[in-house]
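Hi D.,

Good news: the full-assembly prediction came through. Inputs first.
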Amino acid sequence: MRFRGSYVRRVALTALMAFLLSCASSQTPEAREPRGGAEVEVDPLPSWNDTGAKAKIVEFVRAVTDPEDPGFVEPGLRIATFDHDGTLWVEQPMYAEMAFALHRVRELSQVHPEWRTQEPFRAVLEGDKQALIAAGSPGLVEVIVASHTGMSATLFETIVAEWIRDARHPDLERPYTELVYQPQLELLRYLESKGFKTFIVSGGSVEFMRVFSEDVYGIPPERVVGSSIETRYEVQGGKPSLFRLQEIDFVNDKAGKPVGIHEHVGRQPILAFGNSDGDFEMLQWTTLGSGGSRMGLILHHDDAEREYAYDRASRIGTLDRALDAAAGSGWVVVSMKKDWNTVFPED
Amino acid sequence: MRFRGSYVRRVALTALMAFLLSCASSQTPEAREPRGGAEVEVDPLPSWNDTGAKAKIVEFVRAVTDPEDPGFVEPGLRIATFDHDGTLWVEQPMYAEMAFALHRVRELSQVHPEWRTQEPFRAVLEGDKQALIAAGSPGLVEVIVASHTGMSATLFETIVAEWIRDARHPDLERPYTELVYQPQLELLRYLESKGFKTFIVSGGSVEFMRVFSEDVYGIPPERVVGSSIETRYEVQGGKPSLFRLQEIDFVNDKAGKPVGIHEHVGRQPILAFGNSDGDFEMLQWTTLGSGGSRMGLILHHDDAEREYAYDRASRIGTLDRALDAAAGSGWVVVSMKKDWNTVFPED
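Then the structure:
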């Protein structure tokens, strides 16, 4: 009888433990508010060194989730926005989306023989980097429009999906989707577990990122904000589609980022993470002039050994004005070299 | 010993039950897939009569959530879009937002004496409905721009919040936010409990609806898609703001709805609910030409006693083309009179 009672008890306790654990993992973030008292927790940010940056993040999250703290923020208002290129994945030596655009121009050149002599396409086809740089923004727009438009939204997604599956980073020789930053994946999950809603807010094309955002970052398409192409709704042969017109609709960069966030999210972020001057206004909009808990973070690429080292003088991901403003604005500059013990997943 | 063993067992089973129940209520929608076998459930749609419309909705939801069913849809793809005016709340005898715009014009006329003789403002100030109708779309745009722009996004939200708190529906003499449809609130919660992501997709202004969407519909701002005004990011005196320019950015109506859904949600809905020809293209985009489970619904206002009766000949919420197409497209026409036993909350 003792044995049997004890067996029942053991079975019941094991079942209880299993349910407790399954509850814990399936609870919505809102349900996981701290209840006060000391909690022993597994480190949610193991790829972050125990330096000031990590301590500031953890303290910020503690304050906004503690109903007793003056910095407490209601779960629905815990909006966190992350830039994409250079903040969530590698942006050097060329934005992945630009590599995609050049690849598309080379493919399409088979039906555009005139491109052999027409700038900026000639420069793309001949790999003439100097001419490409000289073509500047207007040249860039031409390449983007030529590579990103003139087909249905569905076909564009298929083309991006195939490219992202097959493409390899020129230096690191891995798929771009493996060159995401492990510490940022941990930070996204950590914030979400604390009731934050996370968003990607990028200068890149929204339709480009959405193809892989859920698989790679666990961020579904509706939480991706980006630049966009004008589209037109059409029905042909009883089949509706969205046709991608040869016109840029919105550029979600610099002062466009607060506009894009407002248009898409409808609430001001309380945390923003960027890495370049393109994120300056998003960091401002998030942290300046509003009361309550606010946090701005800048990833500083200072790790030539494991990734790249660049800032003020870089043509891609220039970090100059935002770096100057960081101290005065209370933005946390995260050093890839010092604050991260791991850069990529499965390093 | 028998008593004690049994006591432990009872305590353990009670605890298990409690945890099972707490798990069930705190689980994310995705975690609530049916496990097969018969389930006894409280009716999630008590304000819907047991007619064909309700049966079709329940069967659709059963199919898309049953992993064994050929119509199964992964939770992330269960996107449901709802029109706003006339689908989630009353739109007769005038859109609430238009009542807001006219109110604003009257208020602003104190600093715009020239409006006393300038159309369409003179017509607004004198309540000249015929002249207002004659002013048509260009007049409407003038009224919208005059009432919706020229201030910061934050100030606009405050103005809308005050108006929506104080305004009363001209016929039903209740706040607009009480004139939402109880059966639709139940449907939103039912779909969400089955892993659907719900969105409002309206021709109305996104910044207008977002002020009350979470309180009234349980739909947070980032899941509201609507028409928008051009905004510009500014910093003045160290304080950043978004200034609402005198220009309409996007009209999220008719063929704009699929474009708005694509831009904002990034995935095709599998269920769309509308009530007028303004929803025709959203219903098409949702149900035509794509494989898998799809459902289109149209609310037919045929209840002059409890709400209003109107369709083909109505100037507001015209339902003509979409009604003709319903049968051939498999769209379910929901009769307010026959299919709903309650219209408003706390009737």
